[in-house]
Amino acid sequence: MSSAVNSHELPAASMAGNPMSLVVDEASEAIRANAFYFGNKAWAEEYLTYCHRSEQFKERWLAATGDWTGKVVVDLGCGPGNVFATLGGRPARLIGVDVAGGSLELAEGLGYTTLLADAANVPLDSEMADVVAINASLHHCEDMRAVLVEAARLVKPGGVLVTDHDPQLSAWDFKGVAKLLWVARLFVYRVIGHGFHKTATQQMWGLKTEIHHKPGDGLTDDFYIDTLAPLGFSVSVYAHNHEMGADVLDGKAGPAAWKYKIANMLSGRRPSARTSALSLMCVARKTDGVLA
User: Predicted confidence band at 19 (pLDDT cuts at 50, 70, 90)?
Assistant: First the structure.
C-alpha cells in the first residue's frame, strides 16, 4: 500500500481477491489500522531494521525461551519477523501470524510460514507449540485478554508463552504537566526531525495502531496472572526499561531515558521504582496442559 495517504479516515480495503481485503473489510478499526501501517513494506522494513534488534533483547528472550532450534514456534503479531531475525536458531517449524500482508512477505523471506489472521482467532490446533511469542503486539489489539487466551491455547504442556514490550500501566499514567509534555512531544518531534517516523502521515498511522499505549492505559501484573494462572500456567512478570538483557529475569529493570525519568517525577513517582519501568515481560510456562 502507498504511504501517500492524506485522509485521517481508515481506508477501505482494495485489491479484490487479495486475502488481506478479507481481513480488513471484516475487521475492527484497530485491525485495519495495523494492517495498513505494517502492511506498508517501506515502513515495515524500517521497523525490521531498527526495532527489537539489540543484543540485550536477544539475551533477554533467549533466557526466557531457550534456543528455538528444533522447536515449534508461533509468533503472534510477528510483523516483519523481528524476533526471529534477532534470536536466530533453526526451529522445527516457525509460524508467523499477523494482519499485515506487507510485513508477512518480509517475514516469509526470513523463513516464517505465515498466516494472515487475527491474533484472537488463529486457525491452528490447540497445544501445538513449544514456544508462543508475542512481542510489542498485545497493546495493538483491542481485546488483549482474548489474544492472550488464544495464545495460551496454542502452548503444549511444558511449553512457554512469552510476551514483551507492552506498556506498564503505572509507568504511563502521566499526570498534569507530564501529560501535557507527552502530548506536545509529537509536534516537537516533527519540528526538530526527531523520532522514528519520517513523515506526519507515517506518525499518524503509527499512532492509530497503538490502541493501549497512551497515558492512563497499559498492562499490569494482575492482567497476566489473572488471565493465565487459571489456564494452567505458572506466571512470572518482569518490569524493565528495554536496555537490559537476561538480568530482567532477576528483577532488574535497568535505567530509563531521562525524558521518562522526568515524566515519572512530574507524575509523583520515583523513577527507580518498579512501577516506573516502561514495559512488562511475561514468562508463562504451561504446567498441566488443561485449558478451562
Answer: very low
Cβ proximity of 267 and 173 under 8 Å: yes
CATH number at residue 115: 3.40.50.150
Locus of grid cell 516483519 = 80
Q: Is the dihedral of CA 184, 189, 190, 196 positive or negative?
A: negative
Which residue carries 516469509 as its cell?
108
- What is the pTM for the complete model shown? 0.86
In whole angstroms, give the CA distance from residue 195 to residue 126: 40
Judge whether 269 lies within some domain.
no
Phi-psi category of residue 114: left, alpha or beta, with phi > 0 → left and psi -120 to 50 → alpha: beta
Q: CA of 25: how far to CAs of 5, 9, 32, 36, 137, in Å? A: 18, 14, 8, 12, 21
The H or E element that residue 238 is part of is strand 233-240
Owning domain of residue 135:
46-169+217-254+274-286
213-246 confidence digits (pLDDT tens): 888 889 999 999 999 999 999 999 999 999 999 9
Give me the phi and psi of 200, to 5 degrees please.
Answer: -65, -35
Strand order in the sheet with 233-240: 113-116, 93-98, 72-76, 129-135, 155-167, 279-286, 233-240
List helix spans (H) across 88-175: 101-110, 144-154
Number of domains in the chain: 1
71-118: per-residue pLDDT in tens?
A: 999 999 999 999 999 999 999 999 999 999 999 999 999 999 999 999
